[in-house]
Design brief:
The complex is a heterotrimer of chains A (315), B (354) and C (281). By secondary structure, chain A is of the alpha/beta class. Helices cover 30% and strands 14% of the residues of chain A. Chain A has three domains: 1-106 and 156-176, no CATH class; 108-147; 178-309, no CATH class. In chain A, the strands form two sheets. Chain A has a five-stranded mixed β-sheet with strand order 2-1-3-4-8. A three-stranded antiparallel β-sheet of chain A has the order 5-6-7, with no helix packed on it. Chain C folds into two domains: 8-99, Beta Barrel (Elongation Factor Tu (Ef-tu), domain 3); 107-240, Nucleotide-binding domain of ferredoxin-NADP reductase (FNR) module (Rossmann fold, 3-Layer(aba) Sandwich), CATH 3.40.50.80. Chain C has eight helices and 15 strands. In chain C, the strands form three sheets. A seven-stranded mixed β-sheet of chain C has the order 10-9-8-7-11-12-15, sandwiched between helices. The radius of gyration of chain C is 18 Å and the shape is globular. The mean pLDDT of chain C is 95.
Chain lengths: 315, 354, 281
């Protein structure tokens, strides 16, 4: 990915200078290892703060919702699919956007690295294939493919599906990936085992809502968790309310989720709630041959009627 | 003040003795993370931890807590009458609380223990608890306690301060509660006259490399800070989740909720967050802090300006660094504090030199 | 330790429909335990949390006056979950009240001074409490002239109509009633918004005069320059603010405006004080 940052700055500077856009939404270097901060640049002088590396896992489409400006946005494969979804759902207009596409080789899993490292991670650097982790006791090198986020490991759409600029040649898409091994593993369990599994999965939840707020799909003006008249959901740590939140949220993402992993990445207590959305993603693919955000020309699976629908309810 | 020595060989024995007189709470490793938990019979608190992801504030301020219960069954004589929920306020001890988190308790106490009103839930738990601190010899790179009014060996808010000293722990008994605990545990060996603790304190403080500047905050005009341009930049990345407020040891905001199942109901309180839009929304739909910028500004202004002005006890932050580490989008309170503290200083210079 | 979250138990003793749209009702409460009435020692301008088991709590200004003994009165607009439920409750129903809460209009400061009271809509409740307090024979002589400007959208939306008529007749208080518009041909009072009527009818301000203003934000916004024009200093103008509240005792953190908490440091602030805080209400 070397050279991406330079190219991003070069394109951004050009777009800002010739007034093609009012702002660029990208990332700036974070204060923490493996953390970059979503960032908006409004003047050409500031483009040097923009960076790109394997720590840009937050989905920037989240920052487009209902904006009215002309915007340049940096988009890896999954972000681009969410941009498509945003356009289809009228959250932003295509002609407001200059999409600066980033062919992606995956984002690194900061929790996994923290777990592998001995002691606190003080600095992380990367080359194309390797991640070097510095701790108080020394340095360790990991193969990047071994420390990718789970969703990046099984990603088959690394290249932006829609773009106006491209910072590099497209990367080769991953072939022969078993995308749904984890989902099948859960599907194979008995109902009570599933119940126990989800109980344990969601037990650490503190209801901070980082997952839904990091998700570009969760843009409702008032989320169902906040509805007061009537109130749908209790606000305590009652496990039933916590489950309701996660399950209902996942269903709201059915046919829309691109498995960008922002929810899981954002969770401060490390819950893999992707397992829920992943199951729905798999069902959409199995039942409708649908993958979200691949094209501006087709309506989402749950948003369209076809006369040959196999389900009887439609007839 | 008495400093005693607890041989690590006697640690488990003392804990066992304490199980009889106290409820025990301490850090426990669960999967790869430490959390503060009630220690069931025989469990020994694991003091080999760095920092917990969540602060131990829940020890005195549970995330959700029942306050009252009632019946809505009209055929009952006591229908619609709130009754206090039975609570266990028997003595408890929390082990391994970090000095920063203990100081946070003292800050939060200013909110819950006022001249006019006392919050019985918080105060009863607080008073029932003996706080045994664990001094911090290997701080994280994100710890900035020494410039946030506390430090790795800070004693405020603690009844006992323990420090690891190789084969033994040194324990400074800071209050009567602390003395009583040591007696119950059978820990009585005097550490003698020793400078070890002082030396360890100096060494630990030297390891805190991250800092904030706060000296200019109280002199700033609140409205000028409020109206500053930098909030747009500070707040852009924020996704308005409640992570920073929930992991923070000093955030105390809460909600009160009624929940009814069938004919029986309860009134409870739960943590709440100024990051959530619903926090301030009026019944009319009007929201005084309707935008992300307003909410982010509120959080930092409360911690670093309003609190400073209201109590004159420094900032409402103890430098534990949890929000820095856990924020999904890396909004860093140290950076914001620096921006606020240095805000307008150019102008001040210009005025002074003219 | 007294539990400040535990409400006093009260029974609904009377319900009066105040407005033509039926959305405003005045509830009269009596304490189930007589000794609680003594504990509930309040001043005009304070509020309380009305507490309905199963529904929640709602902060409402106290409409009865400290000089009225044996009951409490609140006039409630049907708006949210709690108030809607309350509107469906009946005489005899049991519920709770926590309070009194917040500060009040500084009556000792006002002694010997003229007082201008400006109110609009259903925010007139604590102003009613104040007027009853001021007109009480034991109090009236302590204060100078009293002027009241009170407006509602229509004649049918005016609160406390019987009392308004009574005050009209008195010579120790000047009452200026106004409505935004009226289709009543016999309407004999003012027609117009509160700010221009205030400008027209209210006395000049000065060091011997204080103004109290309660009403919707838009009314407050446009009344402010009128009062300035009339010569009322910012620290002689008192406003009562509203914000979302839960605890009502300064602990839950949501009603803050800057370092002030509306529930505990307010709800009554001078304009000078408000001008120093962010307008987050």
């Amino acid at each position: 990915m070397s050279g991406y940052t330079d190219k991003i700055r070069e394109i951004s500077q050009r777009l800002l200078k010739d007034c093609s856009v009012e702002m660029i939404i990208g990332f700036r270097k974070g204060t923490q290892p493996m953390m970059n901060e979503p960032f908006v640049v409004r003047s050409a002088e500031d483009v040097d703060q923009l960076i790109w590396d394997s720590n840009c896992g937050i989905n920037l489409t989240n920052y487009l919702t209902n904006r009215t400006e002309k915007i340049g946005i940096i988009a890896k494969g999954c972000d681009s699919r969410n941009i498509v979804t945003h356009i289809l759902e009228n959250k932003i207009k295509r002609d407001q956007l200059v999409i600066i596409g980033v062919p992606c080789r995956g984002m690194i899993d900061r929790r996994r690295i923290a777990m592998l490292a001995e002691g606190e991670v003080l600095a992380v650097t990367e080359t194309d294939d390797a991640i070097v982790v510095k701790t108080g006791t020394g340095e360790n090198e990991y193969k990047k493919s071994d420390v990718l986020q789970q969703n990046c490991k099984v990603c088959v759409h690394r290249n932006p599906v829609i773009h106006d600029e491209l910072v590099a040649e497209p990367v080769e898409e991953q072939q022969d990936i078993d995308r749904y091994a984890d989902v099948r593993d859960i599907e194979a369990r008995k109902p009570e085992e599933k119940w126990a599994f989800f109980d344990e999965l969601l037990a650490p939840c503190i209801r901070c809502y980082a997952c839904k707020n990091a998700c570009p799909l969760c843009y409702c003006p008032t989320c169902f968790v906040d509805e007061a008249k009537p109130q749908w959901l209790g606000k305590s740590q009652d496990p039933m309310d916590i489950r309701t939140f996660h399950f209902l949220r996942a269903y709201h993402c059915a046919g829309r989720c691109t498995d960008c992993g922002a929810c899981e990445r954002a969770c401060p207590v490390g819950i893999n709630m992707r397992l829920l959305t992943k199951k729905l993603e798999k069902d959409c693919l199995d039942q409708y041959g649908w993958e979200a955000g691949m094209s501006l020309d087709s309506r989402p699976a749950l948003d369209i009627y076809r006369p040959d629908d196999p389900e009887a309810f439609i007839k | 003040m008495k400093v005693i020595k607890i041989d690590k060989k006697d640690w488990a024995k003392g804990i066992k003795a304490l199980h009889k007189a106290y409820g025990l709470i301490g850090p426990v490793k669960e999967k790869e993370y430490f959390t503060f938990q009630v220690l069931s019979g025989g469990t020994i608190p694991d003091l080999e931890f760095r920092n917990t992801r969540l602060s131990p504030k829940a020890v005195v301020f549970p995330q959700s807590e029942d306050m009252f219960e009632y019946s809505l069954d009209d055929s009952r004589e006591d229908h619609h009458l709130l009754k206090e929920v039975e609570k266990d306020y028997s003595p408890r001890v929390v082990f391994g609380i970090r000095p920063c988190d203990a100081k946070a308790l003292e800050l939060v106490k200013m909110n819950f223990d006022t001249d006019e009103y006392k919050d019985p839930y918080w105060l009863n738990l607080y008073e029932a608890t003996t706080f045994v601190g664990m001094a911090c010899d290997s701080p994280c790179s994100t710890c900035f306690c020494t410039t946030a009014g506390t430090g790795p060996y800070h004693e405020e808010g603690l009844d006992v301060l323990m420090a690891d000293n190789g084969d033994s722990y040194l324990a400074k008994l800071l209050t009567d509660k602390g003395e009583k605990l040591a007696t119950s545990a059978g820990w009585a060996d005097s550490a003698g006259k020793s400078d070890v603790l002082a030396a360890k304190k100096t060494a630990a403080e030297a390891k805190i490399v991250s800092t904030v500047s706060t000296e200019a905050l109280s002199g700033k005009d609140a409205l000028e800070l409020y109206n500053a341009d930098f909030w747009e930049d500070v707040s852009f990345a924020c996704i308005n989740c409640g992570t920073c407020t929930y992991v923070c040891p000093t955030c105390w905001c809460f909600d009160i909720q009624d929940e009814v199942h069938g004919k029986s109901g309860k009134r409870m309180r739960t943590w709440d967050s100024c990051m959530f839009p619903i926090f301030t929304v009026h019944t009319t739909g009007h929201n005084p802090r309707a935008t992300k910028l307003q909410r982010v500004r509120q959080r930092f202004m409360h911690k670093l300006k309003y609190f400073v002005d209201k109590y004159d006890k420094g900032i409402m932050c103890v430098g534990c660094g949890r929000c820095v580490r856990q924020c999904p989008v890396n909004i860093d309170i140290r950076r914001v504090c620096e921006t606020m503290n240095s805000f307008g200083s150019d102008n001040t210079c210009a005025v002074q030199s003219s | 330790m007294d539990n400040p979250y535990l409400p006093f138990q009260v029974r609904i003793d009377d319900i009066i429909v105040e407005s033509e749209d039926n959305n405003l009702k005045t509830f009269k409460f009596v304490f189930l335990n007589k000794e609680d009435e003594v504990k509930f020692n309040y001043s005009a301008g304070q509020f309380a949390e009305l507490s309905i088991p199963g529904k929640g709590e709602i902060p409402i200004g106290i409409a009865s006056s400290p000089v009225e003994k044996g009951f409490l009165k609140f006039t409630i607009n049907k708006a949210g979950v709690v108030t809607t439920h309350l509107h469906n409750m009946k005489v005899g129903d049991i519920m709770g009240i926590r309070g009194p809460m917040g500060n009040w209009f500084p009556w000792s400061t006002f002694e010997g001074k003229n007082i201008l009271i400006v109110g609009g809509g259903f925010a007139f409740t604590t102003l009613r409490s104040s007027i009853i307090y001021l007109l009480d024979p034991a109090n009236r002589s302590k204060f100078g002239n009293i002027d009241v400007v009170y407006g509602a959208r229509t004649p049918g939306m005016l609160l406390y109509k019987d009392e308004l008529v009574e005050w009209e007749k008195r010579d120790d208080i000047n009452v200026h009633i106004t409505v935004d518009n009226s289709d009543d041909p016999d309407w004999k009072y003012n027609v117009g918004f509160v700010p221009p009527i205030t400008e027209e009818k209210a006395p000049q301000g000065g060091s011997d005069s204080y103004a109290i203003v309660c009403g919707p934000p838009i009314m407050i916004k446009f009344t402010q320059p009128v009062l300035e024009k009339l010569g009322y200093d910012h620290d002689h103008i008192y406003l009562s603010l509203e914000n979302r509240m839960k605890c009502g005792i300064g602990m839950c953190g949501r009603c803050g405006i800057g370092k002030e908490l509306v529930c505990k440091d307010g709800p009554v602030f001078t304009l000078t004080e408000i001008n120093k805080t962010p307008r987050e209400y």
